[in-house]
Amino acid sequence: MSPSGSPSQLSIGVVGSGGDGVVLLGELLARSAVLAGLHCYMDKVFGPQIRGGESSVSLRISQSQVLRSADELDVLLVLQWSDLARFHDVLSIAPDALVICSSEDDGDPQACGLPVGHRGPLLSLPLKQLALDHGRSKQARNMVLLGAASGLLDWYPQQLRAILERRMQRYDERSRENNLAAVAAGRNAVASWQGGALPALPTSNGSADLELASGNELLSRAAIASGCRFMAGYPITPASEILEYMTRRLPQLGGTCIQAEDEIAAACLTIGAALGGVRSMSATSGPGMTLKSESIALSGMAGLPMVVVDVQRCGPSTGIPTRTEQADLNLALYGAHGDSPRIVLAAAHQADCAELATQAFELAGEASAPVILLSEQQIAQGLATLPAGTVAEQNGNVPGWPETAIGGDRQVQLTGLEHDNSGRPASDGATHAANMAMRQARVDSLRGRLPALRSGKDNGALGILCWGGSFAVCHELVELLNSEAGSAGLYCPRMLSPLDTEDIASWLAVFERIVVVEMNHSGQFFNLLRTKLDLPKGTHSLRRSGGRPWRLAELTGFLATHGLLPAGMEVQQ
């Protein structure tokens, strides 16, 4: 049964256990839609277990660019109901959503999160038995489910076939045949199903030249294109993909990637490479940033460029390693004893990871100072579309940091002690004051170098100020408000240190009411703004801890509570 109509977008969720192939199923759907010329965004959310646990993906396909998952799912594919219960705060199911699940699962759908008033089609299939009969393994259940979903929705058949063939090239002949047989079995199982109206697919945009990539991948590719030829790191979720990518690619390009014994060693190795004139970086998450703090301060004291990527996750301590948050801003800004000037950048979406990685190396070299690039789990591991070839690695001669390179027969002195111009330790207050002013001035000279992201009106009734990954939902909020006769604008700075206070102040002055949006408990960005600016009276702080993505209804509900919605606009639930 084929769907009718042609909406502009569609959202699909997949849930199961670790090892069920949930992510593979989601990626096959996503990549085939992209091959059909559609834009796509795909979130990956896992349990915190090292092995096993629960796994989910949420993908949103659209005829225009999308930067986050949808608030509600139009289609839900369930390999195991008990796993859905673990994602009740991440996956919200529309009342009329199509649900495909296993008839061999004795879990209670409503107890596990299916809405009590669900009225959409619900199709139960013997996924395990079909997988055993046709795929020769119960592990092929995800391929049976793929076949069923693609058959019901008529999911871009030509493109899905091409993606499957491309993916199966890495398998041996027997595995390839079994997987394709499992897909066919799922499709055949629903061929004659007549269970109600089905969600419609967005119409293919033809052969739009798009690619699907994660923030971690794009950041890695841009770092290489910017001349990075050394990386030292230590595996940590959700930054490990950067280390994995660089481990594969840097040796092929004449570079070096080292998995160090710990985060401190990784940071010190990065500084050592910079001393040799090599553009170098390290990548970590919150716990690793804490350990790297002293080495980052050493980079500033020694005047050596250093790029450190912090992919934020829920903290403190181990926290929730696999969930997103924006709570490392204070650590990035102030994580050192004494005064330690540094440049802090924050990526707003996947493609922004690439642009800011490029900027990070340029700024670090220009200021001879550390640059901390903040990303977030949702951006880092989530997939988004961008024009193909936007970020291309560079294989030829690449720039280094020659002004830092040691060599020849000269003696080099490097110390974390305060020092004079020759590098010799100096303990007098005048030298310390002069050097401190110089280090700060080098960082301050870059103020305003990186323009903020803006959308919506240039002036009006409501100004939304955000940073990092909150940009996507705030961008949609501003578009929604303005479509309802509102006059709202959005400002999202990407350089948080040094902060362009003059530009922010001029933007604040042309809006009547201001709301600051961020995903952390204490309002770290709001407090930063208060220390740097005279915020307008009545500025609101909309903040909460991470662990789940923003939903548009949260923001519209907050605005309604404070009387900030356009007249006559109804609050989304």
Q: Beta fraction of the residues?
A: 15-25%
Structural class by helix and strand composition: alpha/beta
| Average predicted confidence as pLDDT | 94
Question: Quaternary status of these chains?
Answer: single chain
- The named CATH superfamily of the largest domain: Thiamin diphosphate (ThDP)-binding fold, Pyr/PP domains
Principal-axis shape equals: globular
- CATH class descriptor name of the largest domain: Alpha Beta
Task: Determine the fraction of residues in helical runs and give it as a percent range.
Answer: 25-40%
What CATH calls the topology of the largest domain is Rossmann fold
Largest sheet descriptor: 8 strands, mixed
Spans where pLDDT lies below 50 across 5 or more residues: none
Whole-number total of structural domains: 3
Number of helices: 19
The spatial strand order of the largest sheet comes to: 6-5-4-1-3-2-14-7
What's the CATH architecture of the largest domain? 3-Layer(aba) Sandwich
